[in-house]
Design a protein that fits this description.
It is found in: Cytoplasm. The chain is an alpha/beta fold. It contains 22 helices and 13 strands. 47% of the residues lie in helices and 10% in strands. The protein starts with 7 loop residues before the first helix and ends with a helix. Bound molecules: 6-O-phosphono-beta-D-fructofuranose.
Length: 546
């Protein structure tokens, strides 16, 4: 057994979990009319209702004991202080510095990093202002109409999610495109829609060695030059967002057009950095600052609120409760806002790349579950797709319902209908429908006897299915900043409880290595070499058909 699973806090939760067997949330609500007041929290214009969970005050007490036992507060303080808590890469984890009060000081290796953050933001502001006001033109003197961000993983998902979430704030002249997939279709379809004279490519890659990004960037450059633009025009149409000046120069982008950041910014936490430049161009520097301010407000809350009133801590321990004590394998992210349609994809990387680990910080195989499988779709689309399983399947699927109270598009009665679905879903999941209720309904509809009894089991909803509801007044740059930082810190809390390193991602390396080894065979440059029979069989089939 690991230190964690034999620890006092864990064993107490194990025992408590058994005591919670058979406890239905329906009864918890019936017994306590103030349950919502006890199990909800607000931070400014963000409200978290976590009352529809299989928890009592005792459960939460035990979960916070676990969080304290695992040093959540100490690790949190170490993160904010710039200590190298990313142990396998010996790096600080300081995405919080990107949105910090720049008058302060945060040191990495004895150096205050905030002046560099301020300088980078200034550079981004000057550039984005120029693109937006039309003073930055293409090589033929026309203002930029299309921004094409080429990046993948954290260099794509953060920018595309935030950009899409904030479409109502976009500059009217500027269209945004995000190319990530190495599948040629992605870049080819994008290039069809743009004009080289008015396009600006942002090559976003922390390392500037990522194969997908460089392949797409090279294709974009060839396409641009092929349009008749001279080599010197590249400087007007290509910029780099990266930590790697050497590779940026090698690619042919002038480092004057490079927006830098630092190795203490993890890819999946980098939208607050120069990687956010496409967002800043789309929404303007002031709105981007409001996004940073939202993140900063959540940071201040996470640092100072006692765990019991701490939004990220509450979300974090609830996930641990279901994953480790109720065998939940997944977690659904269900934004009831079309503009948030990329949030589930964004959180897939943020969460699964961070906590998808099976070795603890001491290098031992864990004997407990770590990060969940994250999935989701915007509501109400998900309701007509996979919610059947959430309501009546055999699995416990904790859900986060996320919704703005005000819509950017208050057309007809759409928004009340949308919101009624949020409330209805969480209520239905919690309360369910008993056999007696179904019997009464069926009787009323005229059914009776054997026919009624035959249909009855299919129409029963067990209920007791957990959900959180996160309401914001409206999705604006500030509340989005709050929301993104909320999830970042939730992931941090969970990784700390699980004693894993949340800020590395070694698990993505093997596939990259093997792809490099297989590529020459597909290009016909080499014989396939030694592989298993499946890989060889597939290679042969591909060769046959190409
Ligand atoms: O920004 P880069 O260096 O191109 O990396 C892109 C992505 O690739 C990964 O390293 C893993 O695939 C992610 O963590 C990262 O966000």
């Amino acid at each position: 057994m690991s230190d964690l699973t034999r620890s006092p806090a864990w064993t107490a939760l194990d025992a408590h979990r058994k005591a919670m067997d058979g406890v239905h949330m329906r009864d918890l609500f019936a017994a306590d009319p103030k349950r919502f007041d006890s199990f909800s929290l607000r931070l400014g214009d963000l409200l978290l209702d976590y009352s529809k969970n299989r928890v009592t005050a005792e459960t939460l007490g035990l979960l916070f004991d676990l969080a304290r036992q695992q040093g959540v507060e100490t690790w949190r303080d170490r993160m904010f202080a710039g200590e190298p808590i990313n142990g396998t890469e010996h790096r600080a984890v300081l995405h919080t510095a990107l949105r910090a009060d720049l008058a302060g000081s945060i040191e990495v290796d004895g150096q205050n990093v905030l002046p560099e953050v301020a300088a980078s933001l200034k550079h981004m502001r000057e550039f984005s202002d120029a693109v937006r006001d039309g003073s930055w033109t293409g090589h033929t003197g026309k203002p930029i109409t299309d921004i094409i961000n080429i990046g993948i993983g954290g260099s794509d998902l953060g920018p595309v999610m935030v950009s899409e979430a904030l479409v109502p704030y976009h500059h009217p002249r500027i269209r945004m495109h995000f190319v990530s997939n190495v599948d040629g279709t992605h870049i080819a379809e994008t290039l069809k829609r743009i004009d080289p004279e008015t396009s600006l490519f942002l090559i976003a890659s922390k390392t500037f060695t990522t194969q997908e990004t460089l392949t797409n960037a090279n294709t974009a450059r060839r396409w641009f030059l092929h349009s008749g633009a001279p080599e010197a025009a590249i400087a007007k149409h290509f910029a780099a967002l990266s930590t790697n000046a050497t590779e940026v120069s090698k690619f042919g982008i002038d480092t004057a057009n490079m927006f830098g950041f630092w190795d203490w910014v993890g890819g999946r936490y980098s939208v607050w950095s120069a990687i956010g430049l496409p967002v800043m161009i789309a929404i303007g520097a002031d709105a981007f600052e409001r996004f940073l301010a939202g993140g900063r407000a959540m940071d201040a809350h996470f640092r100072s609120a006692p765990l019991e009133q701490n939004l990220p801590a509450v979300l974090g321990v609830l996930g641990v409760w279901y994953g480790n004590f109720w065998d939940a394998q997944t977690h659904a992210v269900l934004p009831y806002d079309q503009y948030l349609h990329r949030l589930p994809a964004y959180l897939q990387q943020a969460d699964m790349e961070s906590n998808g680990k099976s070795v603890d910080r001491q290098g031992h195989r864990v004997d407990y579950q770590t990060g969940p499988v994250i999935f989701g779709e915007p509501g109400t689309n998900g309701q007509h797709s996979f919610y059947q399983l959430i309501h009546q399947g055999t699995k416990v699927i904790p859900c986060d319902f996320i919704a703005p109270v005000e819509s950017h598009n208050p057309v007809d009665d759409h928004h009340p209908i949308l919101l009624s679905n949020v409330l209805a879903q969480t209520e239905a999941l919690m309360v369910g429908k008993t056999p007696d209720q179904v019997r009464a309904e069926l009787t009323k509809s005229g059914l009776s006897g054997a026919a009624l009894e035959a249909l009855l089991p299919f129409k029963v909803f067990e209920g007791n299915r957990p959900s959180n509801t996160i309401l914001v007044r409206e999705i604006d740059p500030y509340t989005l900043g709050l929301l993104v930082a909320l999830y970042e810190h939730k992931i941090f809390v969970q990784g700390t409880i699980w004693n894993v390193y949340s800020f590395d991602q070694w698990g993505v390396e093997l596939g990259k290595q093997l792809a490099k080894a297989i590529q020459p065979a597909l290009l016909g440059e080499k014989a396939p070499g030694a592989h298993d029979s499946s890989t060889l069989g597939l290679l042969a089939a591909i060769r046959d058909w190409s």
